[in-house]
Amino acid sequence: MARNKKESIVLETPTGSDHVLLHSCCAPCSGEVMERMAEAGIKFTIFFYNPNIHPEKEYLLRKEENIRFAEKLGVDFIDCDYDSKNWFERVKGLEWEPERGERCTECFDMRFERTALYAHENGFDTITSCLGISRWKNMDQINDCGKRAVAPYPGLHYWTFNWRKQGGAARMIEISKRERFYQQEYCGCVYSLRDMNRWRLKNGRDRIEIGVQYYTNE
Prior knowledge:
Layout (H helix, E strand, L loop, with lengths): L18 E5 L3 H13 L3 E6 L7 H18 L3 E3 L4 H7 L11 H20 L4 E4 L9 H12 L6 E2 L9 H12 L10 H13 L16
Parallel strand pairs: 1-2, 1-4, 2-3, 4-5
Protein name: Epoxyqueuosine reductase QueH
Pathway: tRNA modification; tRNA-queuosine biosynthesis
Enzyme class: oxidoreductase
């Protein structure tokens, strides 16, 4: 269902640019952001760089769903490397950090640094990310990482727009159900999978099964 005019939000990039590089972690989180920018007439390209996602089967499922939706909207999709070895090196020593802790900061830094480098080398002046639309994420933490990533590149900006505004988080779920996206049940990394499974077992639930859960309208 399309957003009506009363629900619409006027989007304006920090530079007035009409071409944004959007770092995407998955289809459910990016769906609302993609539709909102498309409705606003902002041209954007998806940049998929998520070496944190584990195992590789989960990584491929999330990437393929994102590609599927990008193709539906006619949006360019940049498929970056799955250099998980470098990610493990980056977060070494932070294995037991909690969600939203220092490990997450390092993870966001790594992903945004690569996004900013690609933007700098390919003529973009604005980058942003769909990560902040999730209520499980710390918006300030994400924005700080984004601004830090663009700092080395004069003229490159990180767009700190709050994608949760005016029902954005609810629309994220609505779009996910409509498109029947794959529904991941943990943030993405092996440590979040470990912690979620520990919580599930403690609460009498089965371990997460990769590739089983999909959004439905039921």
